[in-house]
Amino acid sequence: MAESRKSKISAARRLALKTKLLKTATVMLEDEKEQKKLKRETTLRERVPPLQLSGLSLQDLQALCKELHQKIDVVDEERYDTEVKVAKNNKEVFDLKGKMKRPALKRVKISADAMLGALLGSKVKESVDFKANLKTVKKEEEKKEEVTDWRKNVEAMSGMEGRKKLFDAGQ
């Protein structure tokens, strides 16, 4: 498994597949745009019938204008109502963000058994002994060197023991 895996598809084949995928994706995207455009046109034709102004008298034109103004007023009222609802919802959301403050918490003394009972409910029936579940670790006793006289230790470390004996013997 130290070798790196080789692709089962050659680089030329992979490139050909990528180009085919891109071509089909662009074709699908163009088709989707065309469908949206057709749907929009049909919806507009249904909602807004074409105006036939030729052959209408002055009174008919005035009546048509009044009717169009009434429709415009209805649409404007609906738009205004939705804008007010959106603004109200936004204001409520921002107000809630400002009002949510973290309360000051009080310290509560509770035993481990009571805490587990509160968290787990009646699932824990026997008391849990945490101290029994702890692993015991044996501490190694540190080896202490017994030093009776610090001068002996210093002389031993400096290598002066033999010279001191010579010095003492010479006096």
TrEMBL record:
Pfam family, one: Troponin
Entry's Gene Ontology cellular component terms: troponin complex
GO molecular function: actin binding
Keywords: Actin-binding, Muscle protein
Ligase keyword on record: no
SUPFAM superfamilies from the UniProt entry: Troponin coil-coiled subunits (SSF90250)
GO biological process, one term: skeletal muscle contraction
InterPro entries with a match to the protein in the record: Troponin, Troponin_I, Troponin_sf
Top-level taxon: Eukaryota
Record's function text: Troponin I is the inhibitory subunit of troponin, the thin filament regulatory complex which confers calcium-sensitivity to striated muscle actomyosin ATPase activity.
Assigned protein family: Belongs to the troponin I family.
Protein name: Troponin I4b, tandem duplicate 2
Naturally occurring in which organism (per UniProt): Haplochromis burtoni
